[in-house]
Design a protein that fits this description.
194 residues; alpha+beta; nine-stranded antiparallel sheet; 6 helices
């Protein structure tokens, strides 16, 4: 009987530790987003005790939202930082990391145009039949930005808006105010290159 109670106590303590760990992580991210509020016009929304915060803001007269998601893929948990802009692009396209894309697709790489940045990271863009996509990847400004985006999962631009998602293993560091502000500015420069 005492062994059963001891086992239950250990399970409960482990569960409480995991809740505490999740809460402290998202508390740190929340503080980072509050720091971002001081730099960029916007506000942080957090709906619960250990929930993920969401940032709604405006930069260069364009509304954006930053939120978070997680995924367990091939036994590894990753956090995604999702930045969406309410700004239409002149044409629809997707740029994705080849590693991220191939881990989610069986085949279809022939439908993409490839670009390799200076760090050897391969990006795939589509639709390959649209010459504007190939032209976009040849612009020096776009290449310079892709050289900084080694953690990019995908960038989608279309008539309904823009979605930029990057992967991080260190969500607290990746969401520091200056790092996010720089990333928002890079997205703005990318949109300017369109």
């Amino acid at each position: 009987m005492i062994y059963v109670l001891g086992f239950i106590l250990i399970v409960v303590l482990l569960w409480l530790f995991l809740i505490w760990l999740r809460k402290t992580t998202w508390d740190a991210v929340h503080r980072n987003l509050l720091d971002l509020e001081d730099i960029v016009e916007g506000r942080v929304v957090r709906r619960g005790f250990a929930s993920r915060p969401v940032f709604h803001g405006t930069l260069h007269k364009h509304s954006f939202t930053i939120n978070f998601s997680t995924e367990k893929h091939e036994g590894k948990r990753s956090t995604y930082v999702d930045i969406s802009y309410e700004q239409a692009a002149p044409f629809s396209f997707t740029i994705a990391s080849k590693n991220w894309l191939e881990s989610r697709m069986d085949d279809g790489s022939a439908q993409f145009v490839e670009y390799t940045n200076t760090d050897g990271m391969v990006f795939m863009a589509r639709p390959a039949i649209d010459k504007r996509v190939a032209d976009l990847l040849e612009k020096k400004d776009v290449q310079n930005l892709l050289n900084n985006w080694n953690d990019l999962a995908y960038f989608f631009a279309g008539e309904t808006g823009i979605m930029y998602e990057f992967i991080t293993e260190a969500v607290v560091k990746s969401t520091e105010a200056e790092a996010l502000k720089n990333r928002l500015e890079e997205i703005h420069r990318f949109l300017g290159a369109l």
